[in-house]
Every structure is written in structure tokens, then in C-alpha cells.
Specification:
Layout (H helix, E strand, L loop, with lengths): L4 H27 L5 H30 L5 H25 L24 H36 L4 H27 L2 H12 L1 H13 L5 H30 L2 H24 L1
Length: 277
Amino acid sequence: MEFTTEAILFAFTLTLLAGLSTGLGGLLALFIRQKDTVALSIGLGFSAGVMIYVSFVEILPEALESFETMGYEMAHLYMVLCFFAGIGITALIDRMVPGDINPHELHKGSEFVGIDATHDQINKARALKRTGVFTAVAIAIHNFPEGFATFTVALVDPTIAIPIALAVAIHNIPEGVAVGLPIYHATGSRKKGFGYALLSGLAEPLGALVGFMLLMPFLNETTLGVVFAVVAGIMIYISFDELLPAAREYGSGHSVIGGLIGGMALMAFSLVLFDFV
């Protein structure tokens, strides 16, 4: 299967912008002291809504269609197996990262406050910096498959690429905050806080490049079905393991469900709009 240079550049640009939003989160952490947690909750719920809807309504049906040469029963079986393989792969990566530095494990913001309140400021600053560095590494590990997923969908089906990239970008912003905040408070350097957050986000376009180079020679209808189903699994795991719990932590049940339905509605109507174009 061949793709034009324009399609490849479009897919990579979207993935790059989604990854750079992690740096934006790191930048916000340096200047915003009081975060609007309700808006953050709605935004995270919105991202989950986009990912959940597009995974079940668009990506999985496309995976099933790609497997259809095997017959419906086998195609359905392969789609289900690859879908849960995507969930399993992401869960395995999640398990490899220790809970105290895993950005997908919820941490209260108060854990990063008050490092100068006691006489052991230096020791606390060092521990805080270590937390920030390991969080950056953990986020980079998680962003790698996300970058591959975003790039692949954008490459094959541009009509659903922009909402997905937007959803990924929204959920990358608080991850950037999780990196930039402890680094900045530990070192007093805005440059370092922003730099670590930006580098962790660049794992996303790196994942796109590596995935593209490895899969391109083998990309056909069958491997495309595998990729689509695995990507759907990755997105569903991210939504239920990270986005929705974080949204609930920062807001109320109503703000979460409002953002979730809003994300689904935007995704649904955008797909309907593309049908009329």
C-alpha cells in the first residue's frame, strides 16, 4: 500500500502538534498557579468521548472491513483479538512504570507544594526533581504508542484524524504540567521545566516515525486491519484508565459526563459533516 508525500507529511504534522502540546502543558505549569480544575475535568472527559466514540464507531468497523477477505466470522475474531491485544500492550507498558512516578496514576497537586517550608529544602528539591525526571520518562514511554496510533489513523483516514489529534493534544497538556511543575519547583528554572515537558512530548512523533518505518514495507489490507484494531484498543485503554479517572478527580460527575457527551457529539457530527462533503 502506497501513500503520497502529502499524506505522510499531513499525518506526521498532526502527530507532532499533538506531541508538542505536552510542552504547552509544561509552559502553563510555570505561569498558572491556580488551575481551573472544572475546565480541566471537562476537557479530559471531552478527549475520552472523542476517543471512545471514534474507536467503536469508525476504527473498529474499518478494521473489520480490512479483514473481510477472511470471511466475516474470522474477520470478527481477528478484530476482537487485535483489539484486546492493543489494550494488553498498553496495560503492560503501564505496569512497567512504577506507580509513584506513573503519570497515569493520580497524584494530588499538593504533593508538589511547599518544598521550602522546612529545613530539609535541598533534599526535598532533589526528590522533587527526580520525580519530575522520572515522570518525563514515563510520559515518553506512554506517548510512543500514542504517536504511532495518531499517525496511522491520520495516514489512512484523514477525515477522523483532526478530532483524534485534538483529543490527544488535550490529554497531553496535563501530562506536561505533571512534568514541568515539579522540575520548575525543584530547580527554579523555567527553562528546565519546559524543556523536560517538551522532550517527553517529542516521543509522540518519534513513535510515529519508528512505526512508519517498521510497518511500511508490510502494510496491506490485513496488516492495516491489525493496526486499526490495536489502535482502537490503545485509545480505549487510555480513555478508561487515564482520562476518565483524572477527569473525575479534577471535577464532578456532571462535568465529566458533560465533557464525555460533548466529545462524542462533536465526533459524531463531524463524521456526519464529512459524509455530506
